[in-house]
Amino acid sequence: MQTTRSTRGNDVIIFIHGLSGSSGTWDQMLKVLIGYRDLDHIGYDCYQYPTQLWRGPFGKKMSSIQEISEGLKTFIASKHKGKNILIVAHSLGGVIARHYILESMKFKRDHYVTGLLLYASPLAGAGLANLASRFSWRHPHLKQLSVKADLLTSMNGEWVALDVASSIKVRSVIAGSDSVVSRESSSPYVGDQTTDTLIEYGHINITKPDNAEDLRFKILRDFISQWTPDSSLSGFNPNNFSASDILFDAYSTRVEKFYVPRAEDQVIAAAANASNIWLSGPPGVGKTAALKRLITKEKWKFHHLILDSFRDVTAADLMREICNALNESAGVDKVLPRGLTDSDLVKAFKKAIASLANNQALALLVEEIPLASGAEYNKFIDYCYRMTLECESIHDNCRVIWLFSSIKDPTKDLKECTAKLYEKIQFIGFGAWRDTDITTLISMINTNLSTGFSPEDVGLIVSSCNGSPRFVKMLFRSTRNEIGGSAPLRELLGNVKRDVVT
């Protein structure tokens, strides 16, 4: 199958295959594309890289996602620099494309990508990768595809923080019968409207249309018509909004006008000027959104570390996993062994941070700490204190800011002599919203979505939500579906309460 087509125009599609794939992933799609005469003016090319699902002890070296992304950068710079690029990617290919775009934006490099169409991409990881990585020898990009892998979590956070969707047209195609990548991973953002679901197709045949009328090709064809400069993309307005923007779960600059600032935001902004921060409070009150908003406004470089997947570990093990995650983010193919001394752990940590630090402030957002109250939690806090001290001497021109978020109030586990700790980390309670703030949120959503709730309805919602903005947004989502739209308000409130509990 021909893998390139040059045209006199400036528009080019770059196809990227997935794990253990090759250009064969796109053979049928390219065959249909070549035969579709209305798109003859569009050029295309295929970016290929070595990959396989299993690797033995003496097999060919497998690259990390960061290295494959660097290869894509070189590929585009040498063959398609200055062109208007649409990337169409399958599976792992979508992760590689997103990493290339994110790194380009963070370092203010031109990436030339104005459209991104993803077929069954594991944006939040794949369970098969968790299993396969246990039996595959030193296989970096397979390990990085594991569910809740820190690189993917960090990329998802950066994708929102950098507001990529305001400058690039993006769409995800979900394979409804995919046994490799879950729907939640293909579209990890709650309420995301930029998705298509093809229920009858699986992970492999989602890219293999039979003809030009096949939905698998029509999605590509329609996306191309929206992407090209002479189409609706030229009128793409980031100020346009949808229900998913108003009812956002993840903060970005796109949804800033739907963010309800509270007194707590001023508190954490003031604290961040001179200290590290630890927010604690119940789930669903916006701790992560507040911290990501702070990171965005301060224009800090950002790494997101979610620790929930590490169960039954010690405080030392948890710090070792944080260090491994930072190494992974830096593209360092090294896993620290268990049983390190505290001294060696500190040295490894400083080296990992140094590899990420530059002249831009570096924020490390740490969430979902899986330790029970008691000695190990106390020891973890002590490690955090020591690491904040070490960060102060890593790079003269780079400040490292630790941002912790937890449901548990860590001050209940602190030792009596904590004056120095309080100098380095400010512990801030981030509690349930006040009724006035909740009323402001409800009124804003009610007005923008024309829901039509009366003042009495608003009062009932305020009294039922227990100060949880998550509860409020779940309620409004329920009112927008076919069944919820006709259900009485009290019934909807009861349903949301049950969902929150479960």
TrEMBL record:
<feature type="domain" description="ORC1/DEAH AAA+ ATPase">
    <location>
        <begin position="274"/>
        <end position="369"/>
    </location>
</feature>
<keyword id="KW-0378">Hydrolase</keyword>
<keyword id="KW-0472">Membrane</keyword>
<dbReference type="Pfam" id="PF12697">
    <property type="entry name" value="Abhydrolase_6"/>
</dbReference>
<protein>
    <submittedName>
        <fullName>Alpha/beta fold hydrolase</fullName>
    </submittedName>
</protein>
<dbReference type="InterPro" id="IPR029058">
    <property type="entry name" value="AB_hydrolase_fold"/>
</dbReference>
<dbReference type="InterPro" id="IPR027417">
    <property type="entry name" value="P-loop_NTPase"/>
</dbReference>
<feature type="transmembrane region" description="Helical">
    <location>
        <begin position="113"/>
        <end position="133"/>
    </location>
</feature>
<dbReference type="InterPro" id="IPR049945">
    <property type="entry name" value="AAA_22"/>
</dbReference>
<keyword id="KW-0812">Transmembrane</keyword>
<dbReference type="Pfam" id="PF13401">
    <property type="entry name" value="AAA_22"/>
</dbReference>
<feature type="domain" description="AB hydrolase-1">
    <location>
        <begin position="13"/>
        <end position="145"/>
    </location>
</feature>
<dbReference type="InterPro" id="IPR000073">
    <property type="entry name" value="AB_hydrolase_1"/>
</dbReference>
<keyword id="KW-1133">Transmembrane helix</keyword>
<dbReference type="GO" id="GO:0016887">
    <property type="term" value="F:ATP hydrolysis activity"/>
</dbReference>
